[in-house]
Design a protein that fits this description.
This protein is 28% helix and 29% strand. The strands form 6 sheets. Strands 11, 12, 13 and 14 form a 4-stranded mixed sheet that branches.
Length: 381
């Protein structure tokens, strides 16, 4: 209705075309005059009709940058006037998160940041995302109030006032099927632990606060722990949680099928001998024949092989591994396939942001220089 009233307020317009000597735009900062003219499809020293102006104003509204648009025609100078939506000049949050890094990440997940345009729709979406973040951290029935303060015609300050709801406390965690591993070792790797009933404030005690965001990863952490202890066939169900909203407490249950423990039967590295002598690599591996299989050691060996090859100039080295279990005798063969790619030399070393230190002072502490052969260890150092 506003658009129609704005259009009808152009005094003296008829369906007949009107001459244009000049086209102007006032209050326009979000789009350039060139883009505005392209949207308008009109030029200086041409003619326009009321339907054409009506169509153009609708197009401008579709940018979603403006609260108000109107036109005036004085001495054949057609002027489009824009009142832009305000920008978010200041963001503040109380009652939740106070570190800058945490807030920056939180605002990003909320789809809001300083310098962007303010709209009620964007604010509603940000509030919903904030409440979801609170629930994921275990705060149930939280509330968020938003204070919108107008700084001037073009900017606002937003304050998110968070009242965190009650935390869900994990009072019991059960592990069905666990025989081979110690429960304490499992509790060391998961995020959602059973509360220690007394002195939860004391160092080392578990407060038992439920972290919904981490809950889905806890079963994967338990599975990885079994892989570190040789149980290749171990299966861990996703966490099954029961929440009592009357007492704000929860119990969590995992069902685990441990399977059998595997030992290493053989380790094979496929690599071009001209690049690296394979015999020099085997003694340095963390995982050896007859060892209990350990996925962590395997990953470290994968990184070691890659580094050894990359240190000879092969910057794009890839090392893939294949685990071949023998289910009858509970052994496993590990095969590494190294793909080195081409040798690479350093073309240039660029240092930026060193406003306080001379460039040459930094360079003499850098292990790589132009024309040097690429070396992964030197790069990390």
């Amino acid at each position: 209705m506003k658009k129609i009233l704005l259009l009808l307020s152009i005094a003296g317009y008829t369906i007949a075309s009107q001459d244009i000597n000049e086209i102007k735009f006032q209050g326009l900062t979000q789009i350039s005059n060139e883009i505005a003219l392209e949207t308008l499809h009109l030029k200086d020293n041409s003619k326009y009709t009321l339907p054409e102006i009506n169509k153009a104003i609708k197009k401008f509204y579709n940018f979603n940058y403006f609260n108000n648009i109107w036109t005036t025609d004085i001495d054949n100078t057609l002027t489009f006037h824009f009142t832009e939506k305000p920008f978010i000049a200041k963001l503040t949050m109380t009652g939740y998160k106070n570190r800058d890094e945490e807030l920056e990440s939180l605002y990003m997940s909320m789809g809001i940041k300083k310098g962007t345009m303010y709209t009620p729709k964007k604010l509603k979406k940000a509030k919903k995302a904030l409440l979801i973040a609170l629930e994921r951290e275990g705060y149930i029935n939280s509330t968020v109030d938003i204070d919108v303060e107008t700084i001037n015609d073009t900017s606002v300050a937003l304050t998110f006032e968070v009242n965190k709801g009650s935390e869900i406390i994990v009072t019991n965690v059960s592990y069905k099927g666990v025989k081979a591993l110690d429960i304490g070792d499992i509790e060391d790797v998961i995020a959602n632990k059973e509360t220690d009933c007394c002195f939860t404030w004391f160092f080392g005690q578990n407060d038992g606060e439920m972290d919904f965001e981490q809950l889905e990863y806890d079963s994967l952490r338990i599975r990885d722990l079994y892989l570190q202890n040789g149980y290749l066939d171990a299966k861990v169900t996703p966490a099954f949680s029961k929440i009592d909203f009357n007492t704000n407490t929860a119990s969590i249950e995992y069902t685990i099928d441990e399977g059998n423990q595997y030992t290493v039967n053989d380790i094979i590295i496929y690599l071009d001998e001209e690049i690296e002598k394979v015999d020099t690599l085997y003694p340095e591996l963390k995982l050896e024949k007859d060892d209990i299989f350990n996925i962590t050691k395997l990953r470290k060996d994968q990184t070691f092989i890659k580094t050894a090859i990359a240190n000879k100039g092969y910057a794009y080295t890839q090392v893939n591994y294949d685990i071949k279990p023998n289910k009858e005798n509970h052994t496993v063969d590990i095969v590494y396939n190294a793909i080195p790619g081409d040798k690479v030399y350093i073309q240039d070393v660029v240092i930026s942001g060193n406003s306080r230190t001379l460039d040459r002072v930094i360079r003499r502490n850098v292990y790589l220089a132009p024309t040097d052969l690429y070396n992964l260890t030197d790069l990390k150092d």
